[in-house]
Amino acid sequence: MLQQSAELDRQYLEGDALQAKRSLQRNVKLVEESQVLHPSGQALLLAGLNLRLFALEKRLDHPTEAQVSLIKWRYWLVRSRELEETDTPISGLLDQLNHATDEQLIEDVDKSDKNRHGFPARYAQTLRTKN
User: Fold this and answer.
1) Domain assignment of residue 70, given as a range
2) 26: part of which helix (H) or strand (E)?
3) CB neighbours of 82 closer than 8 A, spacing ≥ 6?
4) Tell me, what DSSP letter sits at residue 36?
5) How many structural domains does the chain have?
């Protein structure tokens, strides 16, 4: 499962917008069906994948799809916190979720992609040069 997820991640990073979207959707399905991950880790991974989908849909000017991905990101982030088995109050997380702007979230996705892989996703670079 982890190898499949890593391959889908590579396809997301190297593909055009359509390939990136398909690989993210497949990765979400793979992670949702996984029996390998701890529930809190699974929820956190799903949050990250949905945040990437939000950024992609926003860049493609698909407001409905972007909004759905944003809602899922929030849900999975809260769910991961609930499953962490910690006494950390959720209020700080709620403040973060309620005050994050679309631009900040997209910037966070780009930074995360660049930090983990050395470069932003190819689709994002391509869309920037077209605008």
Assistant:
1) 2-130
2) helix 17-33
3) 90
4) S
5) 1
pLDDT in tens, 14-62: 999 999 999 999 999 999 999 999 999 999 999 999 999 999 999 999 9
How far is residue 37's CA from residue 1's CA, in Å, rounded to a whole number? 9
pTM for the model? 0.91
Question: How far, in Å, CA of 126 to CA of 106, rounded?
Answer: 15
Overall size of the chain counted in residues: 131
CA distance 105 to 80: 18
* Ramachandran sector of residue 25 (left: φ over 0; alpha: ψ -120 to 50; beta: rest): alpha
Tens digits of per-residue pLDDT, 71-130? 999 999 999 988 887 777 777 788 888 889 999 999 999 999 987 777 889 998 888 655
